[in-house]
Design brief:
It is a single chain. The chain contains 6 helices and 2 strands, in the order H-H-H-H-H-H-E-E. With 112 residues, it is mainly alpha-helical. Strands 1-2 form a two-stranded antiparallel sheet. Strand 1 and strand 2 form a beta hairpin. Helix 3 packs across helix 6. The longest helix is centred in the N-terminal third of the chain and has 26 residues. Keywords: Signal. It comes from Stylosanthes scabra.
């Protein structure tokens, strides 16, 4: 049972990565950061499964390389459905990535 859950998590991450990388190409890399590095450093902190935990310094370092409005263009509905929005907002806030409550960031409306 544990192996099937791990496989499902891995499949979800691969799908999310594919969607994000596709969208990254559409934005032409103008957001300032590296999506593969961001996924590698932060992916574990925004998975739907598991507890909410503070992200690593490496995650914050990668996240802060991105321009907020540009990066919001990468958050499609498909991506929003594959991650925990609450955890993603927590990670952004924890790292100091300024998301104004009530703002629309791609397919996500930032909670108040």
């Amino acid at each position: 049972m544990g192996n099937s859950r791990n496989l499902l998590r891995l499949a979800s991450i691969v799908i999310a990565c594919s969607i994000i990388i596709y969208n990254t190409e559409k934005v032409s890399g103008q957001c300032g950061g590296s999506v593969p590095a961001l996924i590698s450093e932060c992916g574990q902190y925004v998975q739907k499964a598991g507890p909410q935990v503070p992200p690593s310094q490496g995650c914050c370092s990668e996240l802060l390389k991105f321009n907020v409005p540009c990066a919001c263009n990468l958050i499609t509905e498909d991506v929003a459905n594959l991650i925990s929005v609450d955890k993603a907002v927590f990670v952004a806030d924890y790292c100091g990535w300024k998301l104004t409550p009530g703002m629309q960031c791609g397919a996500i409306k930032i909670p108040k």
